[in-house]
Write a structure and sequence with these properties.
By secondary structure, this protein is mainly α. The protein is 51% helix and 5% strand.
Length: 212
């Protein structure tokens, strides 16, 4: 949700066989610089710091607002509520229907294009302390619309490591396998915990030295 970079940087050159480790390191750095402005939380924070250093307080305030929006789950939650409202208007089955019914509903309402899949962010095969469940069962919270995500088929296969696709590493599996609501909720909770910890670590003012 950040503003695009003010001056687009030239695209990094294509790696060749004669590159050194330093060339690859510079290539990775250049690529990261192109991506950072568009990364949630990181992008607005980086832009806000740059604006403050340049004295552009209006842009800093805007990017600060974008940072707050990225750290808040309100936006993604609103989309989930709209989806639930649409389901309730057309539903002939309970809101927490079976996995297949829920995927079909979301595909229809969200107008998912061909080549994309409706992904369970909490898989039916279980996840950590969450046990395996029958995909035909109704009333499961993992079938709530808040726990689905629309993914390209190729990405969906790699998240699950099925159909012969090379599975993602754990970090990318978490990143691609969770939706915007889960990411923003995690970021919001992390920021609140960090803020609380900072406030608790700050020493209380000495009453004897406080100005009267």
């Amino acid at each position: 949700m950040s503003m695009p970079p003010r001056q687009p940087r030239p695209r990094a050159p294509v790696p060749t066989d004669d590159w050194t480790y330093e060339d690859y390191a510079q290539y990775a750095l250049d690529a990261a610089r192109e991506v950072v402005p568009y990364v949630p939380v990181v992008g607005p924070a980086s832009d806000m710091v740059s604006d403050l250093r340049e004295g552009d307080y209006a842009s800093a305030a805007f990017n600060g607002a974008m940072l707050a929006a990225d750290l808040s789950p309100i936006g993604p939650a609103t989309k989930v509520l709209k989806l639930i409202r649409a389901i309730k208007k057309t539903a002939r089955a309970p809101l927490l229907a079976s996995a297949a019914t829920q995927r079909a509903r979301i595909r229809r309402i969200a107008e998912v294009p061909p080549g994309y899949a409706v992904h369970h962010t909490i898989p039916m095969k279980g996840l950590g302390p969450i046990p395996k469940a029958d995909s035909r069962a109704q009333g499961l919270w993992r079938n709530n619309p808040a726990f689905f995500k629309i993914l390209p088929e190729a990405t969906h296969r790699r998240v699950h490591g099925n159909f012969g696709a090379e599975p993602y590493d754990p970090l990318r599996r978490i990143w691609h396998g969770t939706n915007a609501l889960q990411k923003s909720a995690a970021a919001f909770a992390t920021s609140r915990v960090a803020d609380t910890a900072e406030n608790l670590a700050r020493p209380f003012p000495d009453e004897s030295t406080r100005k009267r």
